[in-house]
């Protein structure tokens, strides 16, 4: 069972990491557009549309990744003090009552929205000859399906925690740098170098 959970976590992580490269591309695109507009005096009319689509795609595809890493914001003023079983019970209730219906609605509405856009080969109307919108709109149902799949994995994790009394393991990921731990590591390295000399 744990292998299945890790597999879905890996899929969500790989997709999220792949789409995170859009931020780098977006940075270069914005830099080029500013340079082209103010230095070369040749702005690109399609650049703004493309920037919005790239940011939207990166944002949408990060949902399942963030859920896999337990990184979504929650009001844990009290939640963090609860025992794991109570946390799992609350999470399970919220996943069933709010998350699943909301994400199913996102998938359904996103599919309809993308299908209509694809049927007419919709293009942006912000500029003349704007870029096509239908590839971007197809990201919505795809992101919803990934989020729904990851949500089912989280429900299984809640059930396992209710049964065992502790949260099951998650795949390791890049962790934020803890400044105090970093300082302690640097001091430890300095101390070991001083002893060796």
Overall description:
- Pfam families: DctQ.
- Residues 27-159 form the Tripartite ATP-independent periplasmic transporters DctQ component domain.
- It is found in: Cell inner membrane.
- InterPro entries: DctQ, TRAP_DctQ.
- Part of the tripartite ATP-independent periplasmic (TRAP) transport system.
- This protein is mainly α.
- Helix content is 75%, strand content 0%.
- The radius of gyration is 22 Å and the shape is flat.
- The protein is built from 7 helices and no strands.
- Helix 1 packs antiparallel against helix 6 (139-164) and helix 2 (47-68) packs parallel to helix 6.
Furnish the topology, listing elements before pairings.
Blueprint: H1 2-38, H2 47-68, H3 76-79, H4 84-119, H5 134-137, H6 139-164, H7 179-196
Helix pairs in contact: 1-2, 1-6, 2-6, 4-6
Organism: Massilia niabensis
Membrane topology: Multi-pass membrane protein
Pfam families: DctQ (PF04290)
Structural descriptors:
197 residues, mainly alpha, flat, cell inner membrane, membrane
Helix content: over 70%
Order of helices and strands: HHHHHHH
Provide the low-confidence segments as ranges. Answer: none
Structural class: mainly alpha
Radius of gyration: 22 Å
The portion of residues forming beta strands comes to under 5%
- Chain-averaged pLDDT: 84
Q: What would you call the shape?
A: flat
Subunit structure: The complex comprises the extracytoplasmic solute receptor protein and the two transmembrane proteins.
InterPro entries: DctQ, TRAP_DctQ
Family: Belongs to the TRAP transporter small permease family.
Subcellular location: Cell inner membrane
């Amino acid at each position: 069972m744990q292998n299945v959970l890790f597999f879905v976590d890996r899929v969500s992580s790989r997709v999220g990491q792949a789409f995170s490269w859009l931020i780098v591309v977006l940075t270069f695109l914005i830099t080029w557009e500013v340079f082209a507009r103010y230095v070369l005096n040749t702005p690109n009319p399609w650049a703004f549309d493309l920037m919005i689509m790239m940011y939207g795609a990166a944002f949408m595809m990060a949902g399942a990744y963030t859920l896999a890493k337990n990184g979504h914001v929650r009001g844990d003023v009290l939640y963090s003090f609860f025992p794991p079983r109570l946390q799992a019970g609350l999470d399970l209730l919220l996943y069933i009552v709010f998350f699943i219906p909301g994400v199913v609605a996102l998938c359904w509405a996103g599919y309809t929205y993308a299908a209509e856009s694809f049927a007419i080969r919709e293009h942006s109307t912000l500029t003349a000859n704007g870029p096509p919108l239908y590839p971007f709109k197809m990201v919505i149902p795809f992101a919803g399906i990934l989020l729904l799949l990851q949500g089912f994995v989280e429900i299984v994790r809640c059930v396992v925690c209710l049964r065992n009394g502790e949260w099951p393991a998650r795949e390791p990921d890049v962790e934020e740098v803890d400044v105090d731990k970093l300082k302690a590591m640097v001091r430890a390295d300095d101390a070991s170098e001083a002893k060796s000399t």
